[in-house]
Amino acid sequence: MTTSVAGSSPINILHVEDSAVDAELVRERLAETGLTFTLDRVMTRQGYVQALTEKDYHLILSDYALPSFDGHSALALAQEQVPDIPFIFVSGVLGEEVAVESMQRGAVDFIGKQRLQRLPAAVLRALAEAKRRQQHRETEEALKASEAWLRFVLDASRLGSWDLDVEKGTVAISDMCAEHLGLQPGTVTRQTIRDAVHPDDLQRVRDAVETALNSQSDLTVECRVPQPDGSMRWVQIRGRGTYHEAGMRMAGITLDMTERRQAEERQALLMQEVDHRAKNMLAVVLAMVRLTPMVSRDSFVQTIEGRIAALARAHTLLARSRWEGAELRQLVHEEIAPYANSVNAAGPSILLVPEAAQAFAMVLHELATNAAKHGALSLPGGTVSIRWALVDDGRRLTVEWNEQGGPPITAAPTRRGFGTLVIRQNMEHQLAGKVEIVWDPEGLQVAMNVPQNAVVRRVVTETE
Q: Which one of 171, 278, 323, 349 has the lowest number of neighbouring Cβ atoms within 10 Å?
């Protein structure tokens, strides 16, 4: 309900009075206020209660003594049903004790009918005070609503809030701020905050706070907060200092930066890994160029392109996993894709470390290329079987390549070709494994055996 002291909105006044003459005298005095008003007169308790329920009033005037109703009962009903409406006694009953008692019970004034000239000023004063109280309540409600909204926004954003009283050396922290700092919410000392910060970051935080206080500038600093489980939380502290009559204060927010810091660290490590892998791949390509025999220009280009393509396929698989590793089954399928109808591959899902993925990509490419040119894949009915497994209680990884249906092998080659060199270099020297190559008359057989801890990142479960 809004209250207007003067102007556009009429003032609704309820008058409890059994005398028509006195009621008219009161009306005349009310006209002196300059207010636009309506005056409803009631004489009984029933009429009074009904009026309070049917209409919104801005002021109640009441006689102290009525034939069937008394003023104190009217005051009590008003305080129960409309406690914000000012109540003024206008009575012919004299006596200071009566007036004092009425004021103690909650009436804002007690006007004797013999002194009605006081009524206009008392009414204006009562209405003005009621309006002031209403505005104060609205301001408080708006402040509470804004504070509630601010708390909601801070909580939804996972932001903590804090308020430092420099003179007292105390800090009021919100629930979220307390969570960030590993403390209990409420008011704590500055030393409690210092104790929560990692010792290596404490001086930097203290210097930043003092600089912001002395220069009245913005505070922005990040620090580590050790957690009970031994982990580390990164917290950003932001604030601004202000001077007021009670002294210097600084208020601000806290933000958990742990995930962002971890992401930055992962990105930095990934960039280092990519840089390392790029240099390693260039070294491998350079070695391939140097060691690949140049029988003719066309065959040299074709051979180099095939080997670089094998590395590129392994690189793509590694990039998809952010260089965590490459799945062996996918690697096999990538290298035998052109001959998939003639190749049978089987084995568990195993994630290879990046170094092993590149090595196996090179070896599988050399074996597939050799089989397509000279072995089982060079004839329509030829087949290749690829099997891999973890043996010796998972301590070693074996990969077997067996060809059948190709041109008969009459004898092993008299000289070691580049393909054989690639297989042995990658399996034996790079991965510290063993390679057994058998030139069986029915087809080439290659058995590779490498340490599990040197090549396997993990065994992939069916749910992954």
A: 278
